[in-house]
Amino acid sequence: MGRQRAGNGGTESLHHSVLDAIGLEITGGVLPEGHGLTLDVIQERFGVSRTVARETMRLLESMGLVVSRRRVGITVQPSSSWHVYDPRVIWWRLAGPGRDSQLRSLTELRIAVEPLAASAAARYATPAQRERLLALAAEMRAHGEAGRLEPFMELDVEMHSLLLRASGNEMFTALTDVVTSVLRGRTQLGLMPHRPVPEALDLHEEVARTVADGDHAAAETAMRRLLAEVRDAMAPIRPRRV
Hints:
By secondary structure, the chain is mainly alpha-helical. It folds into 2 domains: 14-81, Winged helix-like DNA-binding domain superfamily/Winged helix DNA-binding domain (Arc Repressor Mutant, subunit A, Orthogonal Bundle), CATH 1.10.10.10; 98-237, GntR ligand-binding domain-like (Four Helix Bundle (Hemerythrin (Met), subunit A)), CATH 1.20.120. It is built from 11 helices and 3 strands; from the N terminus they run αβααββαααααααα. It is elongated.
């Protein structure tokens, strides 16, 4: 039994590595729109079973990256067909040459949604959620000032996820994985400063405090200012207009 579990784990790991490799190539433009793929080529290239190759294609098709048709085969789809809210698609795009454009799109989405979510959270959050937000902001300051980016990132993910849930809006809550992906991506891809800037720490505390106080207008304003700081921090990587 133990040997079988180890084998299954190895197969799963291999499957994910093949999926990531092909996903990165599609989202990065190495495999362009219209490019044909076959199970035989995938098996030969990666040294995997037909089952792994078929499951990889099934998952890529579920994300809109490829389509499989009888008598045509497997074909790479245009970016307009991709499921751009899928966390794995987000990660591949952040890890590829289109990183700057993906970061800009995600930040603009956050600016459109999170201030309203913070305002709603100020109205509808439970006492336990309000208390947790204050604790998270305090812990973020401690880790941020010490330059401990990994624990800071995890607290940041928890705080923004909690705000989306506390809004009481299921549409906002459904974006939790999207926000999580960009927050983790910025840290894991080395796009964060060595220490979070003091203004960002202050604004996280202000968001937490205004939500805890039930001040919905101030909470919306604080979150909008926080995300404006994020947008401005990205300015050096944005393409210049000519």
